[in-house]
Write a structure and sequence with these properties.
single chain; mainly alpha; two-stranded parallel sheet; 4 helices; 54% helix; globular
């Protein structure tokens, strides 16, 4: 199945946040599913990090590498 991940879902998944429901984490972890991320989500994350409104547990470059 294909899933388009929301910006918060991407952030919470890569940060291993407890805010992400376990059922959503299982869907993302399932290699049979195709996970997609909008370029707008990446843009939104970069803007929020640069403005200091979002702090990631990973460096932004590490974050982007994991998304690939």
């Amino acid at each position: 199945m294909r899933y388009l991940l929301d910006t918060h879902t991407v952030i919470w998944y890569l940060d291993r946040s407890l805010r992400l429901p376990s059922r959503v984490e299982k869907i993302i972890d399932d290699s049979d599913n195709r996970r997609c991320i909008s370029s707008v989500s990446l843009w939104e994350i970069a803007i929020k990090v640069n403005l200091g409104k979002l702090k990631l547990t990973l460096l932004l470059n590490e974050f982007l590498d994991k998304i690939e």
